[in-house]
Please model this.
Amino acid sequence: MSAQKGFDNGMITAEKWQAIIENDAAYNDLFFYAVKTTGIFCKPSCKSRVPKKDNVRIFQSAEEALAANFRPCKRCMPTEPNLPDQEWIHSITNFINKNYHSKLTLETLAEISHGSPYHLQRTFKKVKGMTPVEYIQDVRIIKAKELLIKSDRAVTEISRMVGIPNTPYFITLYKKKTGETPAQYRQSKCNTEESESEITD
Ligand SMILES: [Zn+2]
Model:
């Protein structure tokens, strides 16, 4: 089996061994190491006692280490996102919250946040439990709900205001996320008030 240089699964290079000895957090997303004698796996940054090199097994992901029946270390918690990742993703969700009305794609987000689309997608999912696109959709639907209740703007206009210029798509997405169309939602919310607006199904 051929693999990329430096990332051969299971093989420990001098570089990786150095990272383990020095608890180098810069390697935290690049590999995990398991110790055969303890059955536990760690992030490279883990401050636990340096194992014997012969007992170390390298994995590219925490999932692979788990699949090989190693348990996550309680100290470095290798199945949890790294703190820098959480901060990184937090800055991205902040950006989305402020720019939901603009055109947002995975590529633009990756460019703005200086990461690759692949790495962003993966890290975002790990930290937030959903993809960036799903998050963007959720934010837009929440904003749309506000506008439907607090304004009497037309659905087409609201659709544009939340960054979805394609109104039929907006309505479909809205229904998928909330179980109602925007018009139905507005009607149900406004029924209690003395609204005379002509909203029909
Ligand atoms: Zn550890």
